[in-house]
Amino acid sequence: MNSLQPVRGTRDILPDEMRRHRVVIETARAVAARYGYHEMATPVFEFTEVFKRTLGETSDVVTKEMYTFAIGEGEQVTLRPEATAGVARALISGGLTQSLPLKVFYNGPMFRHERPQKGRYRQFHQIDVELLGVAEPLADVEIIALGADILAALGLGQHTTLELNTLGDPESRKAYRAALVEYFSAYRDELSDDSRDRLTRNPLRILDSKDKGDRQLIEHAPLFGDYLNQQSRDFFAGVLAGLDLLGIGYTLNDRLVRGLDYYTHTAFEFTTTALGAQGTVLAGGRYDGLVETMGGPSVPGIGWAAGVERLSLLLAEPPLPPRPIVVVPVGEAAQAAALKLTQDLRHAGFAVELGYSGNLKKRLQRANKMNARAALLFGEEELAAGSATLRDLDSGEQELVSLDRLAERLSRLA
RNA sequence: GUGGCUGUAGCUCAGUUGGUUAGAGCGCCUGGUUGUGGUCCAGGAGGCCGUGGGUUCAAGUCCCAUCAGCCACCCCA
């Protein structure tokens, strides 16, 4: 172990990459604001119970992926593996059930102890959107449309596909689950080890198995469609109608499932083929049973989460830092005045750099390296004239500009 | 957690059947300019060859372990 390298699965986000992250987050935030979503935050860690209860004792996340530690008095806390549980907890403990619907935008780090891969980290970042308190299909349509809009705003509309499924209401779901267990139990010995395990823990997941043998069995497995009651069919039809109306394309995928009991109705994923096995870029669904599971009132909800690292990997053009103006003092005499000039221009709203040392050539080289838009040469001649020499670093042209007209002149630079 | 591939300069990579001072391109620094960047020319710095052990007269090269990254599974953003 080398203590000078970051802990496995964690990484430094250096300025170039941070700019990509910011584009993702700020684009999402801006689009979400147009939909009426307000940003909030909850603590990075919660009592372990919050996640155990919402994600389910048997889920993979809870059984093997949580960072949990004791904090005296027998209390256990866990670094959040996802955002929804914290938001739901806040909804209850903050009395927000009195002001539904609650529409929140969220972003921050999450933690899961998984084997790292590209686009999969132990500390990673999600943007997250939740709509609580609306039971109508209109909410599903809105939340999916919001996701689609954000991906489009990031220029990823063509690179992602929306996959959609319904898990029905609890009644339909329960019936289907029972049918699946009955069907697969008959082939228990032919199932893969993983799927045999899923049979008890999470039978719906068998449908998503990549094992060849499982695949053959799955082909003849009962179909969810046959177990959906009328209410569930109507709900899903409402969602599809809304998406059609808005021109949002989708692919129905009846193998797209969620394991946990509180998930209901709509489940969806925006996927890409560009990230290998980490193809899911934005995913979510309806979770009408969640708040109640946590011990709150019955509040319907729907939301999604998107991986900031994954989205930023897909961004085509890495955003460039803003181009500064560089003040270049020439000679000792101008130093103090240059510092003052720099500060005045910053206060006037310009991004201004004043190198720390070096001769004229050195400073211009640095200005060039930071992709500066222009340099302001400032020496004894300029000092005496109450002016600065403005050098356009793109064209190489220079002109003498008096200090009182400088801000106005700089604002005309392209 | 399971299986596989890979670790050589800041970055991308070369390094022969094990053989003497480990190389290239890019980047970085200095100079060619007393007040003028990008281009060009010259010079320079920078390597516990991921880490630890082993085999050998000799290891960047072979073996073992370990750490890390990557790929697939599991699962997921």
How many DSSP-defined strands?
Answer: 16
Separation of termini? 51 Å
Strand line-up of the largest beta sheet: 1-5-6-11-10-9-7-8
Helix count, DSSP H or I runs of 4 or more residues = 15
| β-sheet strand percentage | 15-25%
Q: Would you identify the regions where 5 or more consecutive residues have pLDDT less than 50? A: none
What name goes with the CATH superfamily of the largest domain?
Bira Bifunctional Protein, Domain 2
- Report the principal-axis shape: elongated
- From the alpha carbons, calculate the radius of gyration and give it in angstroms: 28 Å
Helix content: 25-40%
Topology:
Blueprint lengths: L14 H20 L3 E2 L5 E3 H8 L4 H6 L1 E4 L5 E4 L4 H10 L8 E10 L11 E10 L4 H17 L7 E6 L3 H16 L7 H9 L10 H8 L10 H17 L4 E2 L11 E8 L8 E7 L3 H4 L7 E7 H7 L10 E5 L5 H13 L4 E2 L6 H10 L4 E5 L1 H6 L1 E6 L5 E5 H8 L4
Parallel strand pairs: 1-5, 7-8, 12-13, 12-14
Antiparallel strand pairs: 2-4, 3-4, 5-6, 6-11, 7-9, 9-10, 10-11, 14-15, 15-16
Helix pairs in contact: 1-5, 1-11, 5-9
The chain binds one RNA strand of 77 nucleotides through helix 3, strand 6, strand 10, strand 11 and helix 11.
